[in-house]
Amino acid sequence: MAFHLIRKLEQFTRLSSDDKRILEQAASLKVRRLGSREDIFREGDKPRHINLILDGWACRYKVLEDGRRQITALLIPGDLCDVHMFILTRMDHSVGAITPLSVAEIPTDTILEITHGSARLSRAFWWNSLVEEAIAREWVTNLGQREAIERVAHLFCELFLRLRSVGMTNSQASCPSFELPVTQEQLADATGMSTVHVNRTIQEMRERGLIVWKGKTVTIPDLEALQDVALFNANYLHLDHAGQAYDANEP
Amino acid sequence: MAFHLIRKLEQFTRLSSDDKRILEQAASLKVRRLGSREDIFREGDKPRHINLILDGWACRYKVLEDGRRQITALLIPGDLCDVHMFILTRMDHSVGAITPLSVAEIPTDTILEITHGSARLSRAFWWNSLVEEAIAREWVTNLGQREAIERVAHLFCELFLRLRSVGMTNSQASCPSFELPVTQEQLADATGMSTVHVNRTIQEMRERGLIVWKGKTVTIPDLEALQDVALFNANYLHLDHAGQAYDANEP
DNA sequence: CGGCCGCTTGAATACCGTCAATTATAGTGG
DNA sequence: CCACTATAATTGACGGTATTCAAGCGGCCG
């Protein structure tokens, strides 16, 4: 069940089979299923437990008084919503399902047990939330400095790398590809652009051969080219096994 | 020395005099002074210790290949740079001084001692970094959804409340005011706007009586009016003493 | 097969950026 | 104390990028 999370955390550190068993167990205690566009929780809610995305896509978002909506993060399998939120009394944003979703609800107590029991897992969770923070900072930069095509290209680069890090890309045959179950409207909410302009931007990207997007599959003929137009630098994703020093324990 | 940090953390939880003494001590171990526009650290650096801003303003920022620059956070006295960064191998962004700065360098060991020694302080630090994350998300929303005047107004509201929470505002006489040692160019880098347009936006705000900005002092004649044009909702700052339940110890 | 949601297109316009020049302010040294 | 210089703020003109509005198209699901 916790396959994607384990795979992601292993980008940072190796995990013992004990660690993995613990994660598997935590992820299978209670699984909740949501339909597309349902909310996992809403702004103002009291946080109760940690949610782990097992399957499907979700997004964090904020809504302004007048209805404008900003997606502040796209969540894919292996992502944790609000690892630490139990410190705060109220959620300051919402998380909603983009596709039908299956989510593990992990009680905060279980999380505390895990982090107290294993320094490796504790650090791995820590790393995970630091990366989330770094992604948020990169989004600020993306929205503030990059223009339309760079912005969308950047998001595609990020998604590709994040999906690859949890084993959700196809690199067979010629070009790498992945499933993108997101509408152009949602892309607009994530990039701070209008739907119309997202559409035109996507078209330009297609014309320039940067992406092929048919149905729900995106193919990237030339990743380097895409990264170039995006001014993409992957360092903020910290996919560098920085925590290797921590696993003295087991092979 | 650690006055502002203590004051800020007390927005979350009450601290014992022991807690405060520990913080004071940590903040006075080693103090570094920087001139305006010097960097505390740069993207690519290896994080060595935690930096606590004692005096002056700083900013986190990222620079694109072609020189475009985005400020992703404004840092004021009491703010910690990279509480958790020692998990990561390389910094993915820079932090630079806006004004002359005095910064406490706190060794990671000291931080670990503190957090292991006091559950209250540990949670307070946690709260602090959750709030930083929340601010980053709000900035994403700000850049993505709000137009120029709303965006600048929002930043002013945020700064006012954050400064007030560390005791750096003046509410005497009639209207609240604070020192803003930031150039319009830096404001532009923070809001993703051009300098020229920041200038024009500020002028409109002045004409509409939303702010008075003379020299380095900003006065807010009508905070509610400013919040209204900003579509500002303070919940993301979590200034609600959420951690009061934690201080059973001392009066 | 019809309806709905998402995608696409065009035209008009608003917002904001760029360039370039001018004025104001602050910091520095004689 | 004042001239000098650098930095910051301001202004105008122009153009480009992105938004809005409105309408048409197309595929997928019931």
Would you summarize the structure shown here?
Chain A is an alpha+beta fold and 251 residues long. Chain A is 41% helix and 20% strand. In chain A, strand 11 and strand 12 form a beta hairpin.
Structure overview:
2 copies of one chain form a homodimer. Chain A is an alpha+beta fold. The first copy, chain A, has helices at 3-9, 17-28, 108-117, 119-145, 148-165, 184-191, 195-207, 223-230, and strands at residues 31-34, 39-41, 49-55, 58-63, 69-75, 80-81, 94-97, 101-107, 169-170, 177-179, 212-214, 217-219. Chain A has 2 domains: 3-138, Sandwich (Jelly Rolls), CATH 2.60.120.10; 147-230, Orthogonal Bundle (Arc Repressor Mutant, subunit A). In chain A, helix 3 packs across helix 4 and helix 6 (184-191) packs across helix 7. Chains A and B meet through strand 5 and helix 4 of A and strand 5 and helix 4 of B. Chain B binds a DNA duplex (30 and 30 nucleotides) through helix 7. Chains A, B: One of its GO terms (molecular function) is DNA binding. Chains A, B: It comes from Microvirga lupini.
Topology diagram in text:
2 copies of one chain form a homodimer.
Chain A: H1 3-9, H2 17-28, E1 31-34, E2 39-41, E3 49-55, E4 58-63, E5 69-75, E6 80-81, E7 94-97, E8 101-107, H3 108-117, H4 119-145, H5 148-165, E9 169-170, E10 177-179, H6 184-191, H7 195-207, E11 212-214, E12 217-219, H8 223-230
Antiparallel strand pairs in A: 1-8, 2-7, 3-6, 3-8, 4-5, 4-7, 9-10, 10-12, 11-12
Helix pairs in contact in A: 3-4, 5-7, 5-8, 6-7
Chain B binds a DNA duplex (30 and 30 nucleotides) through helix 7.
GO molecular function (chains A, B): DNA binding
Domain HTH crp-type (chains A, B): 146-224
Keywords (chains A, B): DNA-binding, Transcription, Transcription regulation
